[in-house]
């Protein structure tokens, strides 16, 4: 098992950070969690792509986490040699999101079907709306979901991937909550979206202050990791994006609450559970 941050950014466009997306590479293939801005560019850099995803798992339907769903939907279809529906898992509302995405692409679908004689099928997805429990299984690999707390955004879910003795949790956007604690218990790696409360309060912009009440701060994420006995905490979706050289501040804020390994995320950072340990 290996975790690759395809996008470590937030809704705010950033020259160096794609939108939220995390790839988990397993013996059963590549599993993608969220699909923010630029996801397929970063997937290409990691040697993956729309045709390689065994499943797309959405934590919630905030725009920054689904920006490039249409790109995945189109590329999986237009580069295929046979019909290969995209398996999509997500909270209630995911099915209508996929239907709306297909409707948005209707002109393009028509152009390509008319132009390519060997492309005789439409793009498609198999959508499973999830809330908790095991949602996907193949061989030794299992994906479970649990409800998280990103209110007033509802519903939202986090995911855990287990492969043999190894496990990774993708928290998505959430404040500390029981559902996330249950997913995290004893996991090797926790990939958690975080915001810097101290910096956001200094900026004092109302639109930015609003994000504080439904995201975890760095200490919040570290406390969740410590409570669950996680080995490695990976900070992603960093708001605001760290100025160059300030990454140690993020690490220090986490280390004040958590004894394990802390990784300050950047695009294409790869984390291997075998590297666990101080
Ligand atoms: Zn969100």
Structure description:
The radius of gyration is 18 Å and the shape is globular. The strands form two sheets. Strands 6-5-4-3-2-1-14 form a seven-stranded mixed β-sheet. It has 278 residues and is of the alpha/beta class. Helix content is 29%, strand content 28%. The model has no long low-confidence stretch (mean pLDDT 96). The chain has a single domain (2-275), classed as Ribonuclease Z/Hydroxyacylglutathione hydrolase-like (Metallo-beta-lactamase, Chain A, 4-Layer Sandwich), CATH 3.60.15. The longest helix is centred in the middle third of the chain and has 11 residues, at 94-104. The structure holds zinc ion.
Write the layout of secondary structure elements.
Elements: E1 2-7, E2 21-26, E3 29-33, H1 39-45, E4 53-57, H2 63-66, H3 69-78, E5 86-90, H4 94-104, H5 106-115, E6 125-129, E7 133-138, E8 141-147, E9 157-163, E10 166-170, H6 178-184, E11 189-195, H7 197-203, H8 206-209, H9 218-228, E12 232-239, H10 247-255, E13 261-264, E14 270-271
Parallel strand pairs: 3-4, 4-5, 5-6, 10-11, 11-12, 12-13
Antiparallel strand pairs: 1-2, 1-14, 2-3, 7-8, 8-9, 9-10
The structure holds zinc ion.
Zinc ion (ZN) binds next to loops.
What key attributes describe this structure?
single chain, Metallo-beta-lactamase, Chain A, 7-stranded mixed beta sheet, binds zinc ion, 10 helices
Query: Any low-confidence stretches, pLDDT <50, length ≥5?
Result: none
Helix content: 25-40%
Q: Report the CATH topology name.
A: Metallo-beta-lactamase, Chain A
Bound molecules: zinc ion
| CA gyration radius, whole angstroms | 18 Å
Identify the overall geometry.
globular
Q: Give me the count of strands.
A: 14
The secondary-structure element order is EEEHEHHEHHEEEEEHEHHHEHEE
Structural class: alpha/beta
| CATH architecture designation | 4-Layer Sandwich
How would a textbook summarize the main sheet?
7 strands, mixed
The largest beta-sheet arranges its strands as 6-5-4-3-2-1-14
How much strand?
Answer: 25-35%
> What's the N-to-C terminus distance?
19 Å
- CATH-assigned homologous superfamily: Ribonuclease Z/Hydroxyacylglutathione hydrolase-like
């Amino acid at each position: 098992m290996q975790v690759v941050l395809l996008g470590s950014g937030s809704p705010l466009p950033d020259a160096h950070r794609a939108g939220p997306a995390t790839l988990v590479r397993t013996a059963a293939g590549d599993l993608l969690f969220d699909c923010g801005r630029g996801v397929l560019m970063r997937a290409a850099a990691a040697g993956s792509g729309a045709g390689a995803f065994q499943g797309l798992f959405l934590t919630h339907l905030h725009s920054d986490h689904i920006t490039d769903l249409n790109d995945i939907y189109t590329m999986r279809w237009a580069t295929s040699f046979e019909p290969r529906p995209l398996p999509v898992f997500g909270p209630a509302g995911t099915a209508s999101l996929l239907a709306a995405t297909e409707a948005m692409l209707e002109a393009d679908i028509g152009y390509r079907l008319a132009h390519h004689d060997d492309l005789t099928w439409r793009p498609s997805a198999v959508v499973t709306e999830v809330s908790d429990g095991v949602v996907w299984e193949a061989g030794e690999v299992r994906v479970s979901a649990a409800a998280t707390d990103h209110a007033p955004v509802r519903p939202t879910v986090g995911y855990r991937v287990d492969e043999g003795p190894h496990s990774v949790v993708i928290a998505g956007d959430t404040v500390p909550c029981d559902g996330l604690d249950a997913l995290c218990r004893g996991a090797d790696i926790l990939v958690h979206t975080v915001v810097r409360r101290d910096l956001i309060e200094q900026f004092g912009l109302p639109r930015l202050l609003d994000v504080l009440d439904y995201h975890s701060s760095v200490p919040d994420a570290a406390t969740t990791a410590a409570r669950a006995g996680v080995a490695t905490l990976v900070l992603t979706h960093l708001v605001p994006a760290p100025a160059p050289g300030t990454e140690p501040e993020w690490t220090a804020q986490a280390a004040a609450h958590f004894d394990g390994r802390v990784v300050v995320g950047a695009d294409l950072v790869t984390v291997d559970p075998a590297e666990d340990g101080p």
